[in-house]
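Bug #77: duplicate submission created two jobs. Keeping one. Sequence:
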Amino acid sequence: MHPALHSWREELPAHVVRLMAYVGGLVVLSIAASQVFQSTPLKSPIAPADRSDWTTIEKPFPAFTLAIPEAAGQPETYTIRRHVTGNGRKDILGLGAADGSTPYLRAEVYRAGSEISRFDATADTIAADAVGLGPVNLAPVAEPVASKFGPLSLVTFETSQGPHRYCLGFTRTYDDPMLQLSGWFCQGENYVPDSTLACALDRLTLLYAGSEPKVGALFAQAELNRSYCGQRGPLLAATPKYHVLWKALEMQPPRRATR
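Kept job's structure:
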C-alpha cells in the first residue's frame, strides 16, 4: 500500500473525533443560550406611572382675592387645578406660612364638573384636602358659624406633620351653581375663634366670573350679606381691621368640639 494512503487512513478517525467535539460544543452553547434568553426577558416590564386626576395650571390668572391688610407681608399663594376629564376647577388661596407655626389661612373655591355628583361631608373634605398636614383628632363642631356666604360647617383638627397647629376647618356648599367653599385657619397655640374665621372670609371676593354668571350672582349676593366683621356698615367704610384677625389672635382655651 502506498505510504501516503496509509497515513490518511490512520489520521481520519482523529479528524472525525475533533469535528464531532466541535459540533457538540456548539450544540451545548446553543442550548445554554436558549435557556438564558427564555428565563430572562430582554426588557423589564415598565410599570405604569401614577397619574393624578387633577392638573395644576401654570401661571394662573386669579379669579378670586383674599385681601387681609392685617396680614401684610405674609406669604401669599394662588393655585388653580383642573380635573383632567370632568373639567372641574379648584382655585386655592393661601395666606401665611403653610409649614410654619404662625397663623395660616387656606381657602378653596371648587366649581365642580362632571367628575362628582355631590360634595363630601365636611370632615371627609378636610381630611382629604389637608392630608399633607397629617390631620388628627378631627371633631365636627355642633353649631355652624354665620358668614356672608351663609352658615359654615366646621370641624376642628390638629396637625401631626410639620409644626404642631390647631386648625379650624370649614365648608359651605351650593347646589346651583354646584360650588363648594372649603379650607382651614390654623395657628400654633389654640383654635382660631369662629368669629375670626368668619371675618377672614368676609374678605374673600370675586374678581371675575368669566362665563359663569351664576357664580357672579352668588358672590354678589354674598357682598350684600357682608357683616364687615360686625363693626361697620358699607356706607361708612370698607371692612375695617379686625384686632384679633391675624397678628394679635386672642389666646383662648381650646374649644371642646361636640361630635
